[in-house]
Amino acid sequence: MVAGDTVREDVNDRPDEGPTGVLDTRERRQLDVIRRFGTVGALLLAVGSLGAGAAPVFNPVWRLPVLGIFSRMTTVSLTIAFIGVFMIVLAWLGLGRLAMPGRDRMVSLPQMARTLMMWTAPLVFTVPMFSKDVYSYLAQSEIAARGLDPYTVGPAEGLGLDDPLTDGVPTMWRDTPSPYGPAFIMVGRAINWVAGNHVVMGVALHRLLALVGFAMIVWALPRLARRFGINPVSALWLGAANPLVLFHLVVGIHNEALAIGLMLVGIELALARMPRCGPAGPFPPWQPGELLWYGIGAGVITLGAAVKIPAALALGFLGVMIARRLGGRWKHLFATAGALMVIFVGVLAIISFGSGLGFGWTTTLNTASSIKSWMAPMTALGFGAGGLGIMLGLGNHIDAAITVSRMVGTLLGPLLAAKLLLDSFRWRLRPMIGLGAAIGAVLVFGATVQPWYLLWAILPLAVAAGNIRFRTMATVVSAGLAVALPPTGSTFDGRTYQLPYAYAGAVLVVVIAVVLVRRHIPASTRPPRGARGAGNQPSSAAS
């Protein structure tokens, strides 16, 4: 089915009118400058990572001529890295002006793809940055490779404190079991079989795995965008070219790349044979192989959930799309839910028992809650309530306040997701918009929030929510979080002076660079009122 006029205007604004043309000579020159500006930023980030990245404990470049210098000049390396971060973010914002819905001329899909390739290529060779999670991946996979259960023992107990794979794991995670699904541990076990205790090779193979997930995202975004009536260039800009994707999936090597990639590919495969029709019918006969593709798509989504569990929410909203295809009645929803549940449980059982890991992973999904992240609204609320109690002389009850606020968030997130699922079935909003908002609600109201968690919401919304309000909000949030997190993946305890020096030096250099290219910065063209991200695409979308 496809979106129709019954969708509320405050959820999906009217599509753009008029065709989208190719860039003129001046705009192509601007695109060239933006590409090079971002590429230089990516190269600087790669250089800065040699001293400011989350390098292994036994840094392989420490004794190398020239390259080893950066490891000895942390503040300088950090400044170089921040220059690269700022330049990439500014280049992305400039590119967004040429990919803005409502423009008479926009960047073409091949131009966007080439730009993305230019920015990504240098980042493939960086030292891991922004997080040290990749070292936990290596240690937890090695525990499984040795025949132990990574869901009951941590790296310190399973490998020993002297093991080189344990050395790279942050101290706070050395005694915690793995929170990742059996599919990811299986792949990680294969990586460890190839790399052994060679940390650098293991990191390189995990980056290759993250790039596979990134390629899935790049493949799925424009196809889903066309399906849901959004301009694919706009979706690719907000999705794959997003600095949060480049910094945390490509550079940071987070397994969200694989999980989100499988989720998006699964949705696209499931909808491959679904015909387009009005939201209230008529419903054409079943297409050859349609049911098979529903099953294949659901299986791929389940594989994503076997990497990280948030992908499982996509099955609910896929079920809504299929149920509306059947006729949109409650009996169709329940029948679809039952069939998808069989696929979900069956695929998970095959992976869990086939890997020899069982279902122990279901008991460790909240491992990250041991972190009191200031970015998590419910945790921040607990801190605020506890701090207020101290100010009023009621004693220090911060831990209790955080526990209570997290319990509220644990209930509130799923309730909002259920409400969005119901609204999607009633066609008050599009299911893909509901999916992005639902995952965002569950994660934001969760115990811990990290910048890359927001990609679970941004990427589905990028292919379905095309109104300018959403685009503006997503742009501001993405750019702000991209520059807020230091690239080292550490807390800077005892050396906090490095951060203001690095930020100040980087800002000075970037301001000079912007002044030099100011004549080539695209003008901000405000689209017509009510414009959305459809460009010359139809306003219909599979439901």
- Give the C-alpha Rg: 24 Å
Number of beta-strand segments: 0
Structural class per helix/strand content?
Answer: mainly alpha
Helix content: 55-70%
Strand fraction: under 5%
Order of helices and strands: HHHHHHHHHHHHHHHHHHHHH
What's the total helix number?
21
Largest sheet: none
Q: Which stretches are low in confidence, meaning pLDDT under 50 for 5 or more residues running?
A: 1-19, 277-282, 528-543
Principal-axes shape call: globular
* Amino- and carboxy-terminal Cα gap: 5 Å
Please state the average pLDDT score.
82
GO molecular function: glycosyltransferase activity
Protein name: Alpha-1,6-mannosyltransferase
Keywords: Glycosyltransferase, Membrane, Transferase, Transmembrane, Transmembrane helix
Family: Belongs to the MptA/B family.
